[in-house]
Specification:
Blueprint: E1 2-6, H1 13-22, E2 31-35, H2 41-57, E3 63-67, H3 70-74, E4 79-82, H4 88-97, H5 112-135, E5 140-143, H6 148-158, E6 162-165, H7 169-181, E7 188-195, E8 198-206, E9 209-210, H8 212-217, H9 232-241, E10 244-245, H10 250-253, H11 255-267, H12 273-288, H13 308-320, E11 325-332, E12 345-353, E13 356-359, H14 367-389, H15 392-401, H16 408-421
Parallel strand pairs: 1-2, 1-4, 2-3, 4-5, 5-6
Antiparallel strand pairs: 7-8, 7-12, 8-9, 8-10, 11-12, 12-13
Helix pairs in contact: 1-2, 1-13, 4-5, 4-12, 5-6, 5-14, 6-14, 14-15, 15-16
Bound molecules: 6-O-phosphono-alpha-D-glucopyranose.
Length: 431
């Protein structure tokens, strides 16, 4: 079975290789092909050598290679994982910083930063799918590329490729809930609903009983993702609402505080998250080059994507082995949230088997977050259209529907500045 990773030069790749190794008894991967663009060649070489050492150390017979020829690398793939970042961390830094000059949160997924990441990324993903339609039309595309919900929706609406979107937030929240109750994670059945980076856990079943109240009653001093600090105010609100929140809800419910933090970081020597991640990456690639290193280093835990491989490989394993277990993924709505279009992508618990992900029927969005979900979906729909059509009017309207952008003058300013800053990656918006 051939597994292809696009964005193979990412510092997360060893995490994925570890997942393949841990699942080797049930998931017979025989070949891993890492693919990247020329800008990522040095990193993909390092990752390939390190992956070979990890696999040899585990005593497995899996071939690993890299290529910069995407179509050649994709040929015959059974599963394709996308974890790419168009423009690299340099583009992320601009996404995070430019909106701040207008007093607006940047954020690489939820704010205008995520909007520009979507504009840069959607055309690339559609091109990847075109290649897949030619050389591996039956392969599954597991999309981790952010903004994961929006990108997955664009793929499902505009290509014939079988695609499931994935994020590490829910699996981390699931572990967090189990930890708070002091029970094994497998004993819990946690239910999530919403959009990617805008979801809540509204039920936490354990031994047949919904223990969400008990979960919320316990405070955990650690945030579920490394890139967003814990906020006690959010825990109080979560208790009042009766749901556990994705940490990304802080951007909407604690906007002033998040803006203050982002502005302070941007002005400090530490810099925005992109600057911080650059330093972590430098440290990681230094470790990966150490010939004696044969397992994933601890320093990888400093990235926000913890348990990323657990989520990805578990999903692939369940499709391959037709397990019919329940996992939280990004899929088309098909009536689950009646207020949203059928073909839009939502994030929720699904039964995973050889035909993909089937949403559980009994999900309901708490009334307290429904308005926000509907508004953000309006932003997401316009974002996809703007990205595909290179349409400035739709781009502006998308920004106006993003709850973090409050003012049309700011929206126009951010749009113009960002289109200029990213023009090399936005050919559809020809100047
Ligand atoms: C979280 C999110 C991911 C995101 C990551 C950023 O884990 O769920 O979607 O990519 O954080 O982490 P980073 O280390 O790049 O800031």
């Amino acid at each position: 079975m051939k597994l292809v990773v696009i964005g193979g030069g990412s510092s997360y790749t060893p995490e994925l290789v570890e997942g393949v190794i841990l699942h080797s008894r049930t998931l017979p991967v025989t070949e891993i092909v890492l693919i990247d663009v020329p800008m990522g060649e040095k990193k993909i070489q390092i990752n390939t050598d390190f992956a070979k050492r990890m696999i040899a150390h585990a005593g497995l017979d899996i071939s690993v290679r890299y290529t910069l020829d995407r179509k050649e690398g994709l040929a015959g793939a059974a599963f394709v994982i996308t974890q790419l970042r168009v423009g690299g961390l340099g583009a992320r830094a601009k996404d995070e910083r430019i909106p701040l000059t207008y007093g607006v949160i940047g954020q690489e997924t939820t704010g205008p930063g995520g909007f520009f990441k979507a504009l840069r990324t959607i055309p690339v993903l559609l091109d990847i799918c075109k290649d897949m339609e030619e050389v591996c039309p039956d392969a599954w595309l597991i999309n981790f590329t952010n903004p994961a919900g929006i990108v997955t929706e664009a793929v499902l609406k505009h290509t014939g490729i079988k695609c499931i979107g994935l994020c590490n937030v829910s699996i981390n929240m699931w572990h967090d809930a189990a930890g708070r109750l002091g029970v094994p994670v497998e004993d819990m059945d946690c239910r999530f609903i919403g959009l990617n980076h805008l979801s809540v856990m509204n039920h936490a079943y354990c031994g047949g009983e919904d223990r969400i109240g008990d979960v919320l009653a316990v405070s955990n001093s650690e945030s579920v993702v490394k890139n967003i600090e814990k906020n006690d105010e959010m825990d109080i609100l979560a208790r009042e609402m009766g749901c556990m929140f994705s940490p990304y809800l802080q951007y909407f419910y604690s906007e002033k505080e998040m803006l203050r933090k982002e502005t302070k970081e941007a002005l400090s020597i530490e810099g925005t998250r992109a600057n911080q991640v650059k330093r972590v990456e430098a440290e990681l690639f230094k470790c990966y080059q150490n010939e004696s290193l044969k397992e994933k280093p601890e320093a990888l835990a400093k990235r926000g994507g913890a348990r990323y491989s657990e989520a990805a490989i578990k999903l692939i394993d369940s499709i391959y082995n037709d397990r019919k277990d329940v996992q939280v993924v990004d899929v088309q709505n098909h009536g689950t949230i009646p207020e949203l279009p059928d073909d839009c992508v939502i994030e929720m618990n699904c039964v995973i088997g050889k035909n993909g992900a089937e949403p559980l029927k009994d999900a309901e969005v708490p009334a307290e977050i429904l308005g926000l979900v509907v508004q953000v979906k309006a932003y997401e729909l316009l974002t996809i259209e703007a990205a595909i059509e290179g349409d400035r009017r739709k781009a502006l309207l998308a920004l106006m529907n993003n709850p973090l952008v409050h003012d049309v003058k700011d929206a126009r300013g951010i749009l113009e500045d960002m289109l200029e800053a990213h023009k090399e990656y936005l050919p559809r918006f020809g100047q």
